Amino acid sequence: MSKTILIVGLAAALLAGCTQNIQPTELDRAIIGAGAGAVVADVAGKSVIKGAAIGAAGGALCDDVRLCQ
């Protein structure tokens, strides 16, 4: 189970890098983050809704901390 979570997390991080050339808005990043958070939470056996909410917040705010520029 730990390997699966690691692989899914790595895949989500790699997919997040694909948005760099399209100049995503905060809404775009929030949607991508929500999807990634939901998938990771589902694989981990946790609440998908909470995972999506955390992912959406992280996606929307990642540019504010200069993490996804």
Automatic annotation (TrEMBL):
Domain of life of the organism encoding this protein: Bacteria
Name of the molecule in the record: YMGG-like Gly-zipper domain-containing protein
Taxonomic source organism: Paracoccus contaminans
